[in-house]
Design a protein that fits this description.
Layout (H helix, E strand, L loop, with lengths): L2 H104 L9 H19 L2 E3 L13 E7 L9 E6 L2 E3 L2 E4 L1 E6 L3 H8 L1
Parallel strand pairs: 2-6
Antiparallel strand pairs: 1-4, 3-6, 4-5
Helix pairs in contact: 1-2
Length: 204
């Protein structure tokens, strides 16, 4: 074999080695690509799982927050109801004093109305009423002649009356009171059952 053939053989051998190296490199790159894809899929799966857990935790936290807000709201409502009930019970116990002062002033003889003790009782009544009003108490606006309403009035009597239509109030015997918009004590009233002759015809 001459030198030229030897050089050609060496060149072919080098080319074969180079080709083998290229194939090896390509194989390694393919393996690396597959590994990278596998890792990427693993990371994607882990990310999706983490996002699902985060969404679950967020949902649970929001539910717990809403439940706690509802609990606080219920507690506040119960507290307000208990306060309102306690205030109503206290006012109910104090109302008889208002009634006594009112009746005492209504029964003062005409000749005694200018005496100092009467003025003193009136002053006590005004102070007492102002104190109760500061707690939300007010007299219910009931007038003679208006229709009887069992939600606001309590009938002491049903009696014939010439001037007042049946089912209407003749007289307020005892004023009614309310706390804010809630009836504390209905007004005690006399109610007309109609004109006497109509009642007689019914009886006959």
């Amino acid at each position: 074999m001459n030198v030229e053939d030897q050089n050609r053989a060496v060149g072919q051998e080098d080319a074969a080695k180079a080709g083998a190296e290229v194939v090896a490199d390509e194989g390694q790159e393919a393996e690396l690509t597959i590994e990278a894809e596998d890792e990427l899929e693993t990371l994607k799966a882990a990310l999706e799982e983490a996002e699902a857990r985060a969404a679950e935790y967020l949902d649970g936290w929001q539910r717990a927050r809403a439940e706690f807000a509802n609990y606080r709201r219920r507690q506040e409502q119960q507290r307000q109801q208990m306060q309102a009930l306690a205030k109503a019970n206290l006012l109910l116990q104090l109302l008889p004093v208002m009634d006594d002062l009112r009746r005492a002033l209504e029964t003062v003889p005409e000749e005694s109305k200018e005496e100092p003790w009467v003025s003193g009782v009136e002053q006590v009544q005004r102070k007492w009423q102002a104190t109760l009003e500061s707690l939300g108490l007010s007299i219910m606006p009931v007038e003679a002649g208006e229709a009887f309403d069992p939600a606001y009035h309590e009938a002491l009597t049903h009696e014939p009356n010439e001037e007042v239509d049946a089912g209407h109030i003749i007289q307020i015997v005892q004023p009614g009171y309310q706390v804010d918009d809630t009836v504390l004590r209905p007004a005690l009233v006399r109610v007309s059952s109609g004109k006497p002759e109509l009642n007689q015809e019914v009886d006959e």
